[in-house]
Amino acid sequence: MYREKALILLTALLTASLSVSCSDDSAGTTDAVVACDMTLRPDFHPDEVRLQGVSNVRRLDGIVMADGRRVKPGLLVRAGSLNGLTESDYALLLDSLGVRHFIDLRSAHEQDSPNPILNSVPVGFSDPIAFVSLPLLSTASEASLKLRYPDMSREALLPAATDAHAALLASALYEELLTSSYSQQSLRLFLKRLTAPVDGAMLWHCSIGRDRTGVASALLLLALGADKSTAIADFEWGARLATGHVDAAASSLSLSLCTQHFCSQFNAVEQQYGSIEAYLHHIGLTDTDILALRQRFLE
């Protein structure tokens, strides 16, 4: 059944234009088509940071909101896994990027073997450094995904989805991250933590910096006042850097499908709640929280 759905998606992708419609195959309760504007954004330029042992590291500096304001420099950083972080990488994050707060969005079992470098403090460094464990997926959610896709583990997503079948799992993952009560609570805690008046930049990461990091980053940008195309463009660049398709002209089946499913799930949320702002209120963010985010991170 899943392979038949994959073939249907593959056919749709090959015959679609840059503006497409995405079927919400993961919901299981509806066959509704959720429209996704997949027009490429050549004006979106990611601020990538090259590290030796960590991939998909980007600053959100300068991303433009719908009202023309921009993200202040030196405050927000997204990344992939820090397991390969080197001492020089750590020094660069602390000294050059000013990171003082690390938020780990991975599941508990993925955090069992932390990088020992993160347990040390570089010589001469005296500022306090905070490490926060904030898994976006519950153990029950991971088990549910494995039951729904018994022939595929979630780890199949970590290097990158390689076919349409894997992209279906990505769709289920994005749905789970946006709709499960556990994930919504974690997303609320993530956004509220960013409102705290603390010194230094915030860095959040998952395993490859695409799915969980992508959802958290998109909600942050939308809360700051970005339009949806900007949030989708930010996700797409995270997906490109995770899969190695960094050339804007390059494309792949997995990249296109994952971005489609990501967009489709956000559109489904917007349809259900009426707006992204209403969804943010639903998960527990207040108008005061949203104002605090904008005052802290926009210029």
Structural description of this entry:
This protein has helices at 2-15, 87-95, 139-148, 164-179, 181-195, 211-224, 228-243, 253-273, 276-282, 287-297; strands at residues 20-23, 33-36, 47-49, 57-59, 76-79, 99-104, 130-133, 201-205. The protein is α/β, with parallel strands linked by helices. Strands 3-4-5-8-6-7 form a 6-stranded mixed beta sheet. Strands 1-2 form a two-stranded antiparallel ribbon. α1 (2-15) crosses α4, α4 crosses α5 and α5 (181-195) packs across α10 (287-297). The longest helix is centred in the C-terminal third of the chain and has 21 residues, at 253-273. It is globular, with a radius of gyration of 18 Å. It starts with a helix and ends with a helix. The model is unreliable at 1-33 and 153-161 (pLDDT under 50).
Strand order of the largest sheet: 3-4-5-8-6-7
| Number of helical regions | 10
Distance between the termini: 50 Å
Largest sheet: 6 strands, mixed
Using only CA atoms, what is the Rg? 18 Å
Tell how many strands the DSSP assignment holds. 8
* Overall geometry: globular
How would you spell out the order of helices and strands? HEEEEEHEEHHHEHHHHH
Assign a percent range to the helix content: 40-55%
Any low-confidence stretches, pLDDT <50, length ≥5? 1-33, 153-161
Mean pLDDT over all positions: 79
Beta-strand percentage? Answer: 5-15%
Structural class: alpha/beta
Reconstruct the topology from this structure.
Blueprint: H1 2-15, E1 20-23, E2 33-36, E3 47-49, E4 57-59, E5 76-79, H2 87-95, E6 99-104, E7 130-133, H3 139-148, H4 164-179, H5 181-195, E8 201-205, H6 211-224, H7 228-243, H8 253-273, H9 276-282, H10 287-297
Parallel strand pairs: 5-8, 6-7, 6-8
Antiparallel strand pairs: 1-2, 3-4, 4-5
Helix pairs in contact: 1-4, 4-5, 4-8, 5-10, 6-7, 7-8, 8-9
